[in-house]
Amino acid sequence: MKIALAQINTTVGDLSKNVGLILETARRAAAGGAEVAVFPELAITGYPPRDLLEKPSFLERAQEELSRLTAGTRGLALDVIVGTIGPSIDDTGKRVTNRAVVIRNGEIVFVQIKRLLPTYDVFDEGRYFDEGPAQALTTLQGKPTGLIVCEDAWNDKQFWERRLYEADPVEDLTRAGAQVLISINASPYHMGKREQRREIFSTAAKRHNTPFVYVNMVGGNDQLVFDGSSFVMDAEGREIATAKSFSEDLVFVDLDAGVGDRHANLAVETEAVYEALVLGTRDYLRKCGFKRVLIGLSGGIDSSIVACIAVDAVGRENVTGFGMPGPYSSGHSVDDARTMAERLGIRFELVPIKEEYEAFLRTLDPVFGDVPRDVTEENLQARLRGVTLMAASNKWGALVLTTGNKSELAVGYCTLYGDMCGGLAVISDVPKTLVYEISRVANKRHNNAIPENVFIKPPSAELRPDQKDTDSLPPYEVLDAILRDYVEECRTPREIAGRRGLPLELVRDIINKVDRNEYKRQQAAPGLKVTTKAFGMGRRFPIAQRFSE
After folding, report:
1. Helix, strand or coil, per DSSP, at residue 443
2. Which residues are catalytic?
């Protein structure tokens, strides 16, 4: 059987365009000699459609577009497997199912409904979908084939210590006699996810002695980035075909001969993170209708890496950096920002805020009276910068990219309506230590655009004289270790202090900062997920609550 892995980038809700892309890719697959073309989960609707699924008109339109796709396959000498939605099979109150359909010469010849519906992390499928019955086999090119939709392949009892579901659809299908397993997926990226998938599917192929075809979506949809990285495992669990990571691809494999295309993907995880952020930024802008971006360039490492990502996402001609020095800004900060802008070839505007800041102080001093100046006046500077960027955004129709990292956002070391102003928080899931690592990746791609001084100078918000981040926070190596244990692994303060050899009071102080600043994070711009647990749609804590670690 000759199969084409059709790794495509779809847009949520753009049903007609998605179907057009599927048809175009199916024709290319047929021209390349494929007998079966496999597309990702919910390729017709895009993933995740979220509450669009509650609109009856959305389901109707999806059915219309499925009919158009089906008619468009007439005369194509190959089967098309594609993910879409369909009506529920019983009266549960949920109108919709998540399904894979097999289309052959203008007819739907088989439907497989997704059975295991994830509700952990960023997934909310149990909210929308009616689960399917036990899987059945179909026949492709004379071979009994098991067709699986994403999560249905992620419950192998040989791989997981604690399974989330009782059913194992893969085992059911192989017991029924499947000679080939095909899984269609919308599996978002996080660090280590690509290797985890290969281990899971290699283990399953080897255990069941059955070739396993894995096709994944690629592209950015809101906070999620889908890396693609599709592959095929032979019956011994060896990888015989691979697709690129973070770009569309069409990969051909001959299952009978055990050979296929092997397209290189990024082996170094820091490079993968960088590419995920570029793709997520590009697609967020493109799919929301923006072409240009604005960035506040402070001369620090965070704004520098965001500028590099923006250039790779939308082109240097569409990126403008704003230097906004205040009363405590150092000369090297402006110089570093200007130098980097010149090396990247982006427009740079210098808009000092000192006069505006002093005017605010004169206006507010009579109101505040004898109360000493404190963080209030520090935050005024950040908010003046936010006002400046948002004014330019309104004037030029460009999206502001915020530059705060995960470490800062976790502990509230950021200013609401100040440096948090913007439409996309590009690195909000990138810990500070990782920011430095991916900045080295950026410098390899951009001929050392980020000045070396940016890497070696102590991080500072520069909102008071000689301020350094370590005045308020432990060194980032320590902070990030605590945050990883608490945010991503839900460890207690005592566990973290013990395993890291840290004072318990320090750990408690950091955790309290995380918990107290939930109100800030829920007002932040959407960010791009690259770790196992990102702030945003995958971490849902109440704001008004009294539980404390």
Report:
1. helix
2. 41, 114, 150
